[in-house]
Amino acid sequence: MIIRPATEADVPHLQALLQENKLGHDGLDYMQWSHPCLVAVNDGEVVGMIQAALSAPVSIVTELAVARAYQRRGIGVRLAQHLETVLRSHGVKAYVAHVAPENKGMQDQLERFGLVRVGDAQVFLRRFA
Fold it and tell me: Is 0.70 topped by the overall pTM?
């Protein structure tokens, strides 16, 4: 398993991962990635991705997805560990992640990874015309 920065050639795979995990925002163009985006590659296949909106001192993890066939193998944890290294190198002191209230599995995973629940915030999306 290799964790590396995403490239333009990875974009279709990133889109597929988001759709498979029901994370893609319907109707938005995911052809450009403006912030650090890392991919997990197994035998040449992109099987996971993570992205953060980079800002200091606090960043936001905006996307985390692992192909269903590769879930529960620690890939998400490895992606998060590598992302933390990238964030720290940019002076980031903390990051937040928003999770849907019904996604108990991801909430539990984040807590196991050391994130602390800070409230019941919901994510809202506004599309620009």
Answer: yes
